[in-house]
Amino acid sequence: MTPTDFLFTSESVSEGHPDKVCDRVSDEIVDLYFTKAIEAGYDLSKVRVACETAATTNRVSLLGEMRGPKGIERDEIMHTVRQAIKDIGYEQDGFHWKYLTVNDWLHDQSADIAVGVDAGSGTFTEEGAGDQGIMFGYASNETPELMPAPLLYSHQILKAMADLRHSGARPEFLPDAKSQVTLRYSDGKPVDVDTVVVSTQHTDGLSADDIRELVRPVVQSVLPEGWFPTEENFYVNPTGKFVIGGPDGDAGLTGRKIIVDTYGGAAPHGGGAFSGKDPTKVDRSAAYACRYLAKNVVAAGLADRCTLQVSYAIGVAKPLSINVNLHDTGDVDERKLENVLMQVMNLSPRGIRTTLDLNKPIYARTAAYGHFGREPEADGGFSWERLDLVDEIKRAMR
Prior knowledge:
Helix content is 33%, strand content 23%. It has 398 residues and is α+β, with helices and mostly antiparallel strands.
């Protein structure tokens, strides 16, 4: 039996965290290829990007495979990398957008992979998944965003700090930061904050108390009224000074913050990261589809929580399996719901991309503060957060 009274903790990291810098750069390369493909009239279903980024002191390296329109120059890739790092805010001696070295080791996509993914290639008549794997989606009604509350608050604290930094209101905050929120649950619902931890890179010359008091109003503005932790459970820069940060303080790599990207540990994660991958990679697109379906199930009032799993084989279009778990919070038949979800959405790779309109340059914005729990945007960003299946699911489950 699952306990109903417990503590649960999630963490987030800022856009300037070394791993998030790499996620951002990788996703900017995805967006560059889609932007150039649109400009060239290139078949968007043929765009392929698998970009891994590594970063350390004044050095960024790109590795991976690509396919897209002719004429994407190395200089454009270099410019894209530098602009991403400039936008994050790195102009430090050990990591400066203008002076760092960029190593570009990107190359053409493997023909052996392409033959299993492209529709009509070899023995395949329908576009298949870009790889085998399992993907998960999750939703919970504990917040209006239908996200786990500890992760949501962790993201919001860092996003608020970044906004203050970018606006110039708090130049003391520097790009690298982490947060962690522990909530107390009663009867399975969050009722109070137990502990908050925030570590932020800062300008030199500030004391630990100075940083603590700069962070305090940010946390107060995010948490529900009356939920601020006790002073002994409010930790800010517990190790003291944090001036050297970002890739100069610790090397970064794409895809190392996958729990931050998804549900903060409240739900399982599949085998692959998201950033740097075009949407033929089901690691990314099917995880978005699972979130889309799980969110609509919870929004339809069929359960308080929903976890959805799908699986794929490389080169095969149809999902191998689908599993719905309502965590004993719904009164509907989970097996019937599985069939309904397969009916309301085509879960083939092409079906997912078509339904969610994923062949667009919409990925760099996902790289920090979570891929889920965001507002759908007019240009198609975060389309997997739409709630346009609620009525259809309700009707089908009657």
